[in-house]
Amino acid sequence: MDLGSKPSLFNPNQNNLIDTLNDQKTEWTLRLKALQQIQDFLAKEDTTLQAFLETYKNISTQITIQLKDLRSAIVKESIKILTIGSNKFRTTFDNFVCKFIDLLFQLSASTTNAISKSASDGVKTLLENIYSSKILTKILENSKQKPIQIKILVCECFYYSLTSFPKSILDTLDNDYLLSVIKTFVCENGKLRELGKDCFSAFSDKYPEKTEKFIQSIVPVSKKLAEELKSLIKTFNIDPVTEFPTNIEISAEEWTVYDKLDVFSAVRLAVTQTNFQTNNEIQLELLIEKADNQNWNVREKAFGKMLEVLQNHGQNYELEAVVKKVVEHVKDSHIKVINACMECLIIIAKDYSIMLTAYFPELLQVILEISLNKKEELSENANVILEKLLETYPPDDLLIHFLSISSNKTGVKFALIEIIQYLLEISESFCFSKHNMNLLCKKLSAMCIEGSKSTIVSAIKALEKACDKNVFGTLQGILELPYEEQSLFKKYCQDYSNLLDEMLRGYSKSMIPNSIDVIEEVEEEDLTGSILEPSEQFEDFMRKTSEEILSNLQYYLTKCELRFENIQELILILSKQLNSEHNEDSKKALRNLSAIAKYSKSDKVRVELLSVLSKLLSWDSSNLQRDVDVILKNVIEKMNTGSAVIGILESLKKCEPPGLQTMLEYLMEIIKDRGNISFFGKEIGVRLKEFFGHPHPEVRKNVVLALAELLGKVDEDGFLAIFNQSQQKLIEIYRQKLAAVEG
Fold it and tell me: Is 363 among the domain residues?
């Protein structure tokens, strides 16, 4: 998972989306798409609530605006953002959701059926996902609204809360307030009264001691209604002086439950055994309490019960509390408790994996350390969990988490690098992010400096895996390390990897950053006329205007020590002057680019020149085409193989077909003539694969020819694996033709 790029998870193009939503005049289909993109961002496994709120600042305002739209599709997708977030973030999302409750209730009374249904379903989903007294209070406040649809929705939500919420949440609300809400419902007529009775029945089940008082408050309104309500109260015909029923088997554990309850609740549990087995608040709260018991035996049994809950798919349980407690005690002081937690984690990793992301990377480190434990039962379970996680989560995402792990233990380092190797091999886009490659190189470098020989060898192998994905990014990541780390790393490559050593030697010649002396000082007579004395320094050059510099460019190129940034700026100015092949300014600019190409000794400068000149290959003028071709040839001949390949592959993205064909021909010459091209084979293959479907037949032909030429210089099996079967066959056919010609 490229965390540096994530729209991407970590860097979505939020400005465009917010701008789209800001303007209500924007085509509604574009706003719909923007809302769906926000949903996609929310749905990603590694999106945190903080990341969501920071990425989409003022998103609550935008959602409010969209909820007021007249189109049901816009309203529906806006509500979906809230429901996805509630499912993902649970109770931590309640403050955000509370902002929209009142508006959703207003929408539930809409005359547009689609909007009304979306709003009603949305409120119910939010309540099901978030067990929060804040949301429940906000919902109950809407019982004062006049529209009957709103009252019915409030009543339905209230009934769900009374039957499904733990008592600990309901207790935070004033019971008198709850009773006043029920009273409103049961005193209404029709459907609402029936729903109100259901609420009363659920309330009396939860708070039997309050029901008589409530019925007495109804008598002045309607004696008949009071009698109806009285008949709804569940009675068990229990004589308070008798003992518990003798025909019910009660386990020792159940007796401990009864000890904590008042007599009425205890008896009710005893005679309604199924209620006991599925009672959310009692079972869960007791398990959580026992999980923290000082006696390890009690803790172990508690996690054994949690395992049963997880295996039964956690019906009627708030599993986040279970997961949190399991993660806490995976570092328990007693080995049997740890093992019980590990067994729970196996199920969680398999069936509830999304709940674990909040505990990465700390949890990953703990499991990794346990996987090395000498106790076989512990290490086996830890390895099973690691396997489940590696199967479940995207490798790009896991790489970021594993690279965050820090340990001084040699065994952990070695195991960590092995996992990184594996993930690099199966990763998709991780290695194509500069940020990720720098992170990888820094991590491996630090582990090498502190590690044993086996750790160093393993780290170098991991870098070779990264090179298989993106050779340039890997080499650049090494070269951007601090000087001392870079030197040490190069020595390790020299000792343990001929492949990396050779690539680094060739690549580093042209890619050393911050080089000041990037322009060759040529001893020759100044033919252009000097406006600077030789003693004048770089600062004097910086005071000159671009016109002054360009009018005496050869002088500055040969007499001043120019930084790469200055040459880059000159190239940018000249590229803007290349408006047309028929323009005199364009011809002057081309001559100046030729001068830079002639006197430059830095491949960084030459890569910049390639980028500009390759775009000119589509000009119609044959004379200028010839001039551009000559300059390009001169530039490429001077370049290191790696830099030339980088420059050409980058330029292919920007070229029109005539230029594209020419650049492919240059690439083919490099493949034919340069001996170390095999280092870059995979990178070339991946980039050229994109052009197989190009509409221009000559481009397609040159692509296949280049790949066929390359096939003879690389590991065939690994190289051909990049392409599908029909592409492989085509490359092999052309390779045979080339071999016949060469023969």
Answer: yes
Q: Where are the beta strands (DSSP E) in 74-118?
A: none
pLDDT tens profile 414-444: 899 999 999 998 887 788 888 888 899 999 9
- For residue 76, how many other CB atoms are within 10 A of its CB? 18
Q: Contact, 518 vs 605, CB < 8 A?
A: yes
Token pair listed for 583: 């323009």
Are residues 307 and 430 both part of a single domain? Answer: no
- Residue 358 CA from chain centroid, whole number: 13
> Does 21 share its domain with 166?
yes
Under 8 Å between Cβ of 676 and 506: yes
- Residues near 668 by beta carbon (within 8 Å), at least 6 away in sequence: 702, 705, 706, 709
Torsions phi, psi for 44 (to 5 deg): -65, 140
Q: How many CB atoms lie within 10 A of CB 199?
A: 23
Give the per-residue pLDDT at 236: 38
Handedness of CA 336, 339, 340, 341 (dihedral sign): positive
Query: Domain check: are 399 and 503 in the same one?
Result: yes
Give the domain extent around 349.
252-392
Residue type, 4: G
Same domain, 44 and 153: yes
The model's pLDDT over 340-399, given as tens digits with 9 standing for 90+, comes to 999 999 988 888 877 788 888 889 999 999 988 888 888 898 999 898 888 888 888 889
Residues 560 and 633 in one domain: yes
Determine how many CB atoms are found less than 10 A away from the CB of residue 713: 16
Cα→Cα distances 470→292, 405, 436, 465, 682, Å = 49, 23, 11, 9, 8
Phi and psi based region of residue 251 (left: phi greater than 0; alpha: psi -120 to 50; beta: remaining): beta
Element spanning 740, H or E = helix 725-742
Looking at the domain assignment, is residue 232 inside a domain? no
